[in-house]
Amino acid sequence: MSNQFPLSRTRTPVPDAERAAILAAPEFGRYFTDHMASAVWTPDREWHDRKIMPLQPFPLHPSAAVLHYAQEVFEGLKAYRHADGSVWLFRPELNARRFASSATRLALPELAGGDFLSSVEELVRADEQWVPGSAGEESLYIRPFMFASEAFLGLRPAKRVIYSVIASPVGPYFASGVRGVTLWVNSKYTRAAKGGTGTAKCGANYAASFAAQNEAQQHGCDQVLYLDRLGADGKGNLEESGTMNLCLVTSDRRLLTPPLGTILEGVTRATVLVLASEFGLTAEERPVSMDELRYGAAEGSITEVFATGTAAVITPIVGFRGNGYEFTIGNGAPGAWTLALRKHVLDIQYGLAEDTHGWLRRVI
Ligand SMILES: *Cc1c(COP(=O)(O)O)cnc(C)c1O
Questions:
Q1: How many structural domains compose the chain?
Q2: For residue 6, is it within any domain?
Q3: 37 closest CA partner among 66, 60, 4, 15
Q4: Which of 11, 27, 180, 289 is the most buried if burial means most Cβ atoms within 10 Å?
Q5: pLDDT value at position 2?
Q6: The pLDDT of residue 235
Q7: 240 and 160, same structural domain?
């Protein structure tokens, strides 16, 4: 098979001993592999100059549109090493599709799904030695992204765009065992409005989220919860936690999750919706109000809450705090369904449970 993204190998790879030290204690997003993928788009040539090259900075003119108007989108997925040494991606076609729709929303050119998959797979092959072992939920985190690099301050979609993929080895998200987190029910910020960019995975959404995240931490919470409206009464429907989608489990075995529309369509969310029925939970995508959550938690009809996302897979949510109130879910410890679903997703990803849905894609 010919390479869609031809490799020019670095002559100065990170020395073996240094790489081994990094892989022994990786830190999310801190260390990067030896190579990167890239391609350039212009209106006349479309996508061209596809390559895998040594990791290096971009030469960027100070007027590059992304620096001023945030015309940028990204993706996040992982490569998992199985016990036999093989390396796999998990549902990367969904990331490719989401990347294309995020790009369309930001008036960036669409990258064909084949280019997305080739760039990711060929980068993983070039940097195979950077894929950690299979013990302890380690993986290679892969970050495809696209941005407006045209040197022009005018207000229109850029006519020069760069696509790139970088990769970073990551350790287990919960280094000392799965821990429940608390959410701050913020009444000051919304994440997205109908017709906005909530469904696009774009950097600008994150730039807007840090103030809310800071506020959550000032209130002693780990993460922020976004509702679909503002107001100190804390009423409104649940959206997501800003980096993760939300799921609730009820005492009568239903799995509730807010509907698509203004939230990000998570791959982990879609996966959990399928697995829920195999676990005997009836999945319902429908609006869930803060009142339903609060009173359901109090009377025991809502027994578990968790968040989903590629980085942590499934994060138990054990408590909520808002203006003048707080409450816990169940007994304040991660729930049994939450932990079982989490283990099953991981077991599929690491080849320990049968991949009955054909979700894994072999790279090496
Ligand atoms: C990426 C992301 C998620 C989780 O999506 P996964 O595909 O499951 O990783 C949830 N919310 C937001 C805002 C995101 O950017």
A1: 2
A2: no
A3: 4
A4: 180
A5: 60
A6: 86
A7: no
> For all residues of the chain together, what is the average pLDDT?
96
Residue 10 located in a structural domain:
no
- Angle among Cα 51, 53, 58 to the nearest 5 degrees reads 95
Residue with tokens 């909530």: 198
- Separation of 202 CA from ligand 1 center, angstroms? 11
| Closest approach atom of ligand 1 to CA 191 | 13
Q: How remote is the CA of residue 192 from the centroid of ligand 1, in Å?
A: 14
Same domain? 163 vs 217: no
Shared-domain flag, residues 163 and 207: no
Q: Among 170, 198, 233, identify where a domain stops.
A: 170
Compute the distance from residue 18 Cα to the ligand 1 centre, in Å.
31
Q: Among the three residues 170, 193, 211, which one is the final residue of a domain in this structure?
A: 170
Residue 305 lies in a domain: yes
Residue 95 in any domain: the answer is yes
Indicate if 165 and 22 belong to the same structural domain: yes
Counting from 1 in the atom list of ligand 1, the atom nearest the Cα of 77 is 9
Q: What percent of the chain shows pLDDT beyond 70?
A: 99
Best residue among 141, 226, 264, 310 to mutate for probing ligand 1's pocket (most ligand atoms within 8 Å of CB) is: 264
Write out residues with Cβ below 6 Å of ligand 1. Answer: 76, 201, 240, 242-245, 264, 266-269, 308-310
C-alpha span between 179 and 316 (Å, rounded)? 7
The answer on 197 and 54 residing in a single domain is: no
Q: Domain containing 106 — which CATH number? A: 3.30.470.10
CA 198 to ligand 1: nearest atom? 13
Token code pair at residue 8? 């020019």
Tell the residue nearest (CA) to atom 5 of ligand 1.
266
| Alpha carbon of 225 to ligand 1 centroid (Å) | 14
The CA distance from 311 to 224, in Å, is 17
Residue 44 pLDDT more than 60? yes
Distance (Å) from CA 245 to ligand 1 centroid: 7
Q: Which residue has the tokens 């429940």?
A: 180
110-114, long-range: CB < 8 A, 24+ apart:
111/39, 111/47, 111/146, 111/163, 112/47, 114/4
pTM score of the predicted model? 0.97
Same domain (yes/no): 22, 113: yes
